[in-house]
Request: fold
Amino acid sequence: MSTIDDQIAELKKLTNTAKNTDLSKCLGVSPSTIQTWRMRNKIPQDMFIKANEIAKNGSLSPKGYLELKYFDIEVNAGMGALVEKEEESSSIVFKEKFIRQELGYNPNNVFLMPIRGDSMIPTLKNQSIVMVNRVDGFSTDGVYVFRYDSRLMVKRIQFLPKSIKVVSDNPAYEPWELTKEDIKSADFEIIGEVVWSGQRM
Reply:
């Protein structure tokens, strides 16, 4: 009967990885999970199924499909940041043709993130998932992800002659404006434009 270390070595062989951190990333689990396997002397059978799929297909995604990076919102030391979450990414796949041809975006330039709060209802519900296309700036009206005053926001942006108008689709929230001077002097960064959303009914 193989030992737990033998089983982990087999998973690494199937996934073509050498380190536990690489193995955990490939299987969509946290590095501490591998230590838990060792403590319990048991690896879930679905991990071997995943590893065999990776060995056969080169990834967990079927041919013609791909996983997009998934980021969650984290506030660290007062600064809003997007932090990649491997587990969520491995559970969401898209048809590559849909992203490239129907949406018209490069899959390498888009990522997924959740919506927090109700300020964009009814367009975007709390906990809905949005696809964001990274951009360096904005020039057309749309829904954008941006950082302002150490906070990450998802809002509708409207362009006025001397300012931009920040609008929440929920009428309970008042719109506000940022002048060009405000944008230059403040902690302000455009992350990307929301190009697709998925949510529960």
Summary: The mean pLDDT is 83. The CA atoms of residues 64 and 97 lie 7 Å apart.
